[in-house]
Write a structure and sequence with these properties.
Layout (H helix, E strand, L loop, with lengths): L16 H16 L9 E6 L2 E5 L13 E4 L5 E2 L7 H10 L4 E5 L2 H7 L4 E2 L4 H7 L2 E4 L5 H11 L2 E4 L3 E6 L2 H20 L5
Parallel strand pairs: 7-8
Antiparallel strand pairs: 1-2, 1-5, 2-3, 3-4, 5-9, 6-7, 8-9
Bound molecules: zinc ion.
Length: 194
């Protein structure tokens, strides 16, 4: 398979079929569930010392092989320019045992994040799966703070922006994103604003 000559990409890399399928299916779910805009969010999977990550500005609902970048341990990449969140994904892999990371923009979770430092789900599903969800302030320490929080938590909210979830695979990360948004939506319906 070759990229069309008009695509602004480097040499093609062959994405492992299992990685490609998970990225396509989870990306499509996140878009169809309105957990990202057409061009928002990003996904990555760790394979050995390498990381496969969506390219910057790619559409999660329409991922093709030419949209996935391979980032090696040195930080050099093959394929399209990797997501602007690449350093954050690398840092999460360095300090957690995660095999995959998903970033999305769950709207009720974002709305709640303006007024709280810790979101505690009131619904039973949220309590069971998530316990509580730290809210990190955007700023120069956000990469370190998000990665550190994910050592003991499954998902973290960056205030006013979105959520970062870790999992053994992307399906697990999708579970935590959808669980967070469900809990946040319920909290919003109950009138809890933090
Ligand atoms: Zn984002």
């Amino acid at each position: 398979m070759h990229a069309a000559s008009s695509d602004p990409v480097g040499p093609m890399t062959t994405v492992p079929p299992g990685v490609m399928q998970q990225m396509q299916e989870v990306g499509r779910d996140l878009y169809q569930l309105a957990l990202v805009t057409s061009h928002g969010g990003n996904l990555s999977m760790r394979v050995g010392l390498d990381m496969w990550i969506t390219g910057t500005g790619t559409m999660l609902g329409r991922l093709k092989e030419r949209h996935i970048s391979l980032v090696g341990p040195s930080g050099l990449h093959e394929g399209p320019p990797p997501s602007s969140d690449t350093v954050l994904h690398s840092t999460i892999y360095a300090v957690t045992g995660a095999g995959a990371v998903a970033h999305a923009h769950p709207r009720h979770a974002i709305a709640l994040s303006f007024d709280t430092d810790l979101f505690v789900p009131g619904d039973l599903e949220g309590q069971l799966h998530l316990q509580d969800v730290p809210v990190v302030e955007a700023g120069p320490r956000q990469v370190e703070q998000i990665a550190n929080a994910l050592q003991s938590r499954l998902i973290v909210i960056l205030r006013g922006h979105g959520a970062y979830a870790r999992g053994q695979n992307l399906w697990e990360a999708l579970h935590w994103v959808t669980a967070l948004e469900e809990s946040a939506h319920i909290a919003w319906l109950r009138g809890q604003r933090g």
